[in-house]
Amino acid sequence: MSALADLLSSGIVRTVLMGAAILGAISGMLGAFAVLRRQSLLGDALSHAALPGICLGFIIAGTRDLGSILMGAFVTGALAALVMMLIVRRTTLKTDAALGIVLSVFFAVGVVLLSWVQGQGGAASAGLASFLFGQAAAILRSDLWIMGGIGLTALALVLALWKEFKLVSFDADFARAQGFPVTGLEAVLTVMVALAIVVGLQLVGVVLMVALLIAPAAAARQWTRTLGPMVVLSAVIGAASGAAGALISAASRGLATGPVVVLIATGIVIVSLLFAPQRGLIWQALAKRRARARISDGRVLTTLQGLAAAHSDANYPAEQGMLEAALGTRAPSATIAALEQRGLIQPVTHPPETTPHWELTAAGHIEAAALSGKHSPKSDEGTQ
């Protein structure tokens, strides 16, 4: 606790911590809609498209003015989104192809401009490369007000247009048929994503920003089935990842904040993919194992019931070889042990034979009858 208190006593650490948490919350909230709209690459395309805007903002301002740089990034990001939408609507190319084209072309233009600017010399131009991977220590307290303002604006828009965003995210064609301005709503969502990217450039950078948009939403998607809880949980995961990454980076000198934040968010995704109820891989593996066990149990029970019916003896002791012949495989020892433990079958002796024999108990007859849909003679005995 004392080490944490020492970290938080630093004004720079507190500023980076708050900035990372705000950025994570904004990115998580808006990323949920991008994931549901199957536009996970949209954030990647817009973040890479921001690079030429960063360079143009520097060229126009003539210095490393953060306001000009972020405005340039927003303009080129919005332009990239417009180009992507035009390609999808005016050509036969699908969204993924349009995103790939926009990402590669705009990023290539940005790299060329960055190389040209750095070739002109000057100490200010040298810092432009930090926008590729982020430089959290450069965040100022005044930047927190900008982040907070953008976050509140995005939250207000999401609340005001919740029904419309929800319908567009799940069924855009139905929304269009109902008369909703789908193109306008998608444009608003895209502009909001572009704003979140612009805000995160200084912390996470162009290359890694998409991970902070998508990872919290991907993790939240594993834990919930409805949009409201998913958006809230995604924002919480994003904020927690940002705050944790900032603290770890501050405690371990030399670790860049942006990559640490992304690694933490990715770790949460991995945990969610493995352990989330019903959707987690481990949960599904256990469910499949239980299903196979139920099938195996049912086969043994119904086979014993069939043998008993064939011999007109409810307590007919089935020999191991006979059971294996009926099942077409070796008697599954684990299944038999489980059925014995549940009290559905019981081992019996059948002199002079020494091989294992089993017979159904009263509960086993009822269970087998329920599985096969046949009448159980043991149930009659219980009612007489």
UniProtKB/TrEMBL annotation:
The keyword Transmembrane helix is annotated on this UniProt entry: yes
InterPro entries linked to this entry: ABC_BtuC-like, ABC_TroCD
Localization, UniProt: Cell membrane
Species of the source: Roseinatronobacter bogoriensis subsp. barguzinensis
Gene Ontology biological process terms, A to Z: cellular response to iron ion; response to zinc ion; transmembrane transport
Record's bilayer topology term: Multi-pass membrane protein
Domain of life, source organism: Bacteria
Keywords attached to this entry: Cell membrane, Membrane, Transmembrane, Transmembrane helix, Transport
Record GO cellular component, one term: ATP-binding cassette (ABC) transporter complex
Protein name per Swiss-Prot or TrEMBL: ABC transporter
Predominant localisation class: membrane
Family annotation (PANTHER family): ABC-TRANSPORTER METAL-BINDING PROTEIN, METAL TRANSPORT SYSTEM MEMBRANE PROTEIN CT_069-RELATED
Similarity field: Belongs to the ABC-3 integral membrane protein family.
Residue intervals passing through the bilayer: 12-36, 45-63, 69-88, 97-117, 123-140, 145-162, 187-215, 227-250, 256-276
